[in-house]
Amino acid sequence: MSYSIAEAARRSGLSIDTLRYYERIDLLEPPARDAAGRRAYSDEDLAWLTFLTRLRTTGMPIRRMREYAKLRRRGLASAGRRKAILVEQRGAVAERIAELQACLEVLDYKIDNYDRIEKGDAALTREASA
Amino acid sequence: MSYSIAEAARRSGLSIDTLRYYERIDLLEPPARDAAGRRAYSDEDLAWLTFLTRLRTTGMPIRRMREYAKLRRRGLASAGRRKAILVEQRGAVAERIAELQACLEVLDYKIDNYDRIEKGDAALTREASA
DNA sequence: AGTTGACCTGGAGCGCGCTCCAGGTCGTAC
DNA sequence: GTACGACCTGGAGCGCGCTCCAGGTCAACT
Fold first, then answer.
1. B63-86 pLDDT per residue, tens
2. Does domain A1-62 correspond to CATH entry 1.10.1660.10?
3. Which residues of chain A neighbour B94 with C-beta distances below 8 Å?
4. What is the dotted CATH code of the domain comprising B1-65?
């Protein structure tokens, strides 16, 4: 199957502009073209886009994704370095999750204080200003 | 206690420039000044900065933090709206954690594949290119 | 034949969150 | 008294990740 840029955008959740942008900055191999010169994305292109959006969700900077993309183009020989990038990213994600969980606790604490203020606990007035 | 901008930066983990920037954009009440006109941050200022950095860590945009800061200046009457902001943010953080955990699984899957490739599993060659 | 609409290209512009700079004022140490 | 270093102000600049625009091509429909 092949997909127009509009369809690829719809399926990947990226905008048309972003698809062209990703191609421009070498995140994405230039897709095939139809007879009229229009982009025709393959299922593999879409799978790659899906993976890219995952990496993006993890907070990986585009610079790093480009590095990964470049390695991918070199084939199997680069598997080790690609794995290293993913392992590093896994660590970063785990750290980020821990960080967010810590913040969640702070939020819960604060929210709890606001609850008590609503119930008229005057002793918390000072807390309310912080 | 009061702290010079350098000391406040050290303690908050923000840069001196960022402290002045936060003040400029109304995230931070202008701190007191010493006789020479230099900023003198109080412990309360530092506590607020600590909270701000937590909010930042959760990914709250500055725009929203300003809103919260503005409400805080209005005192107790705004407690309800401040709480609402924190509750919303708690939801956003929980969602983000879930998202990251899903990505973690994808990363683990990919890393696992790379492990197998290293062990010479030729059947995974195609996978390696993705 | 004309209109529409999806697509094309190259390049400019934008919102975010800082970060850096020039040029100046103070207070302390030598 | 002068050199230094920390601080001050207003404003420009930057890296990121898009997003938008002008001007054009092409295929399909009426």
1. 999 999 999 999 999 999 999 999
2. yes
3. 104
4. 1.10.1660.10
